[in-house]
Design goal:
25% helix
């Protein structure tokens, strides 16, 4: 038979290249793919048609006026949205409505993540957009406007530049989220361009009915949508992606209506039949490689008690700075910091092996305890570690793009 081989993608936004994992021939290896694996991407005409038929709003060109100042929000690098693929069609609509280039600006909506730098703006939007239009970073610490409180008591502070514009548009994508059910929709406003007071109150108090894939009665999601309404988001565009970060569904219009339509497709495409009682789980963190915790959702469903977990990340930046939940000292961090933030995901595992070209001491400490975590720089090193503990008949589950995968049995 020979060795078993599985190909995975790494380096989201900075190559999206394929690498190969080789397993011993006497191991039982199952690759767990999403239902929408390799679904063909939309053509240009299909993208245009999606914008021509928005959910619950007029067409964007009909909303635009010649004297409008326009703001276009886009999400940051941890989100898999290929904004450079979508934004040109949004600009077509705005220009058809009479808006000129000089009336348009872009704002990155990173929420509590760090701001982006120039090469990352290019990776997300494309060089032409960055050279042609003003592109700003949002900060949670200042330049926010008080919009009141939601019906659930969340104080709403929103980016000043966004609020000052006449037409407010946003581009994102619908992908699994452990609290909001799915990303996308109004989430680009909260936490995307809100102040720290908004984010802190919301994240500590809106936790009823939160779950991966749960949306309609999810208080975390519903409060987000109320914040987005108060902020005045006029038109939202959300993509549903395949395993290669290609747009396979595009939804536009009202921030709730388009999101629910997108979430319905996302449920169908991202569902993944799990492997049970695996001795080894291999979790590829593409396309959210700088947030390893987003790769761990399949562990409770798939890992044998005392098994090993391998997480693969090629994040160019290391693990993402989280200004609300991150660690900023020996035993303290942001307002939502807790030392056990990641550890609860890995209780069943005997070992966590992280494969990364670089992984700082601080990042390692945030992933797992030192006695439980092993850092390897290559698959060959990790495989040697595994073979030292596991012999013939080892049962392996491979999740090739774990952050996109919604497990079902």
């Amino acid at each position: 038979m020979g060795p078993q081989k599985i190909k995975i993608l790494v380096n989201a936004f900075f190559g999206d290249e394929e690498i190969e994992l080789v397993f011993p021939e006497n191991w039982t290896v199952k690759e767990c793919r999403i239902a929408g694996h390799d679904k063909p991407p939309l053509s240009d005409d299909e993208m245009r048609r999606a914008l021509q038929k928005p959910f619950g709003t007029p067409r964007l060109r009909d909303m635009a006026k010649k004297d409008n100042q326009v703001c276009i929000l886009f999400d940051d690098l941890p989100k898999p949205t290929p904004a450079s693929r979508i934004v040109p069609f949004v600009l077509e609509e705005l220009h058809a409505g009479g808006v000129t280039d000089e009336q348009i600006r872009f704002i990155c909506a990173p929420g509590t993540h760090r701001p982006l730098i120039y090469p990352e703006f290019e990776a997300k939007l494309g060089r032409e957009i960055v050279e042609k239009y003003p592109v700003y970073n949002h900060t949670i610490w200042e330049n926010v406007v008080d919009m009141g409180k939601t019906s659930r008591g969340t104080p709403v502070y929103v980016n000043r530049e966004f609020v000052s514009c006449d037409l407010r548009v946003a581009v994102g994508s619908v992908f699994p989220h452990p609290l909001a059910g799915f990303g996308g929709g109004g989430k680009i406003i909260m936490p995307g361009i809100c102040g720290i007071e908004t984010i802190d109150y919301h994240h500590k108090n809106m936790l009823e009915n939160t779950a991966l894939g749960r949306v309609d009665d999810n208080v975390f999601r519903l409060d987000i949508e109320e914040v987005a309404r108060m902020a005045g988001l006029h038109f939202k565009v959300d993509a549903v992606l395949n395993n290669r970060r290609e747009v396979v569904g595009l939804f536009a219009g009202d921030l709730v209506e388009e999101h629910r339509a997108g979430a319905e497709l996302a449920r169908q495409l991202y569902k993944t039949e799990t492997v049970a009682d695996a001795d080894v789980l291999v979790l590829n963190s593409y396309p959210d490689e700088c947030q390893l915790v987003r790769s761990m959702g399949c562990i409770p469903h798939s890992l044998n008690e005392g098994g090993d977990v391998v997480i693969i990340t090629h994040s160019h930046e290391g693990q993402n700075l989280h200004q609300w939940a991150g660690r900023f000292g020996t035993d303290y961090g942001g307002r939502g910091y807790t030392p056990a933030r990641v550890y609860r995901y890995i209780e069943k595992a005997a070992r966590i092996i992280v494969i990364a070209p670089h992984l700082s001491r601080c990042d390692r400490d945030m992933i797992g305890t030192p006695e439980k975590l092993t850092w390897c720089k290559t698959w060959a090193e990790a495989l040697a570690e595994l073979m030292g503990r596991h012999g013939p008949g080892t049962k392996v589950g491979v999740y090739p793009y774990a952050p996109l995968q919604v497990p079902f049995t």
